[in-house]
Write a structure and sequence with these properties.
Number of domains: 2
Order of helices and strands: EEHHHHEHEHEHEHEHEHHHE
Strand content: 5-15%
Radius of gyration: 20 Å
Largest sheet: 7 strands, parallel
CATH architecture of the largest domain: 3-Layer(aba) Sandwich
Number of helices: 12
Number of strands: 9
Helix content: 40-55%
Distance between the termini: 39 Å
Bound molecules: nicotinamide-adenine-dinucleotide
CATH class of the largest domain: Alpha Beta
Strand order of the largest sheet: 5-4-3-6-7-8-9
Shape: globular
Structural class: alpha/beta
């Protein structure tokens, strides 16, 4: 067991060393699927040399693996990121800082709904994000609060503007999920997820975009959807509905804010290993999804879940890591993406190739 640098949970070596897998020169990924032996090799952290092989489809990833993407792409920018204490939000914060942005890191650092089946984010997690941002030579304003509370977000926008003078980038990343068949859900289970994810994302845009409009220098807004916002999800209807809604919100905001040179785009992750998904409930659901089994094993191991899913993903990975997402966010936030708006950007290991949209 080891502590992953960019996540707060203690986990088996296996997922921590996916980079090792990539660095193995594709020997492991060369086959159609990752074998038990390969997973064991990953778990043991063994490497078979660091040379890249020409035919490896992940060779491009290997050039930046473990390092920030780009250099100075966001110099002198200020980026606000919700849900920044861990997971994908932290990874985006750190990569944006490595590219020169100061960060306003917002997180609730507490339980989100009445019941939460996965690890609750802590203030130490947010502190760790700030430490990693500062390690990259940038400032980090830590703010504990709830994106469901628009008054809190507006007050934070005022404070961020006072401290940094401007706000250039907003990443509306905070979200939760809850598993239950639709007809068995209580109001808090369905409405609560919609309120947190969809209304929380709208609140974030409504609180921060007026600052960008007033500044008159354009801006970048990135919202987090999901592949589950492009297809249905058994027993996750509230999450799926919230993520479809976020795509409609993104396109509408892009239409309205384009005249201010503010772009609005969605980052669409496939399955990513974060505290949100690193649990038996999610692994069981993904085994059910890929095997079309209504009764998947209730307590699968991480290895079982990874190996079951990997053959179905074009790039033959069971899931991604948070740092696989950050480069796309950095690009969408950069000057180079000035003409990209109203778009969704899938980072899924190829899972999106199975989808129509
Ligand atoms: N992990 C995946 O497989 C995956 C896949 C597709 C999309 N996403 C999306 O990526 C984003 C980040 O997810 P993650 O996997 O890093 O999850 P995570 O749980 O590790 O991180 C999310 C963070 O958001 C914070 N948060 C949630 N609700 C909040 C609120 N009301 N106010 C303030 N902070 C709040 C949480 O405290 C947590 O720290 C989410 O929008 C999620 O839906 C994740």
């Amino acid at each position: 067991m080891t502590r992953n640098m960019d996540e707060s949970v203690v986990r088996p070596e296996s997922t921590v060393t996916r980079r090792d897998l990539l660095a193995s020169g594709g020997a492991i990924l060369g086959g159609m699927a990752m074998t038990g032996q390969a997973f064991a090799q990953q778990a043991g952290g063994q490497q078979s040399g660091g040379e890249q092989t020409g035919g490896d489809p992940l060779a491009v990833s290997q050039t930046w693996a473990g390092k920030p993407f780009g250099s100075g792409l966001l110099a002198r920018k200020v980026a606000v990121i919700t849900g920044a204490a861990r997971g994908i939000g932290r990874s985006i914060a750190v990569d944006m800082a490595a590219n020169g942005a100061d960060i306003v890191a917002i997180d609730i650092c507490a339980k989100i709904l009445k019941e939460q089946s996965y690890a609750v984010t802590t203030r130490d997690d947010l502190e760790e994000t700030a430490r990693l941002v500062q390690q990259n030579g940038r400032k980090c304003m830590q703010v504990v609060g709830d994106v469901r509370d628009i008054a809190f977000l507006r007050a934070t926008a005022d404070k961020a503007e006072q401290q940094f003078g401007h706000i250039d980038i907003v990443v509306a990343n905070a979200a939760t999920q809850h598993f239950k068949p639709l007809v068995e859900m209580e109001d808090w289970e369905f409405n609560g997820v919609i309120e947190n994810n969809l209304i929380g994302t709208a609140n974030t845009i409504r609180a921060f975009a007026p600052k960008m409009i007033a500044q008159g220098k354009g801006g970048r807004i990135i919202v987090l959807s999901s592949m589950q916002g492009k297809h249905g999800s058994k027993n996750m209807s509230s999450y799926s509905a919230s993520k479809w809604g976020i795509l409609g919100l993104m396109k509408s905001a892009a239409l309205e804010l384009g005249k201010y040179k503010i772009t609005v785009n969605a980052l669409v992750p496939g399955l990513v290993d974060t505290p949100l998904t690193h649990n038996e409930e999610r692994w069981s659901a993904l085994i059910g999804e890929v095997t079309a089994n209504d009764n998947p094993p209730k307590n699968p191991t991480e290895q079982q879940a990874y190996e079951t899913r990997a053959p179905h993903v074009p790039l033959k990975v069971g899931w991604l890591k948070p740092e696989d997402l950050a480069p796309a966010a950095v690009f969408l936030a950069s000057d180079g993406a000035a003409m990209v708006t109203g778009a969704s950007y899938d980072v899924t290991g190829g899972d999106n190739a199975n989808n129509q949209s």
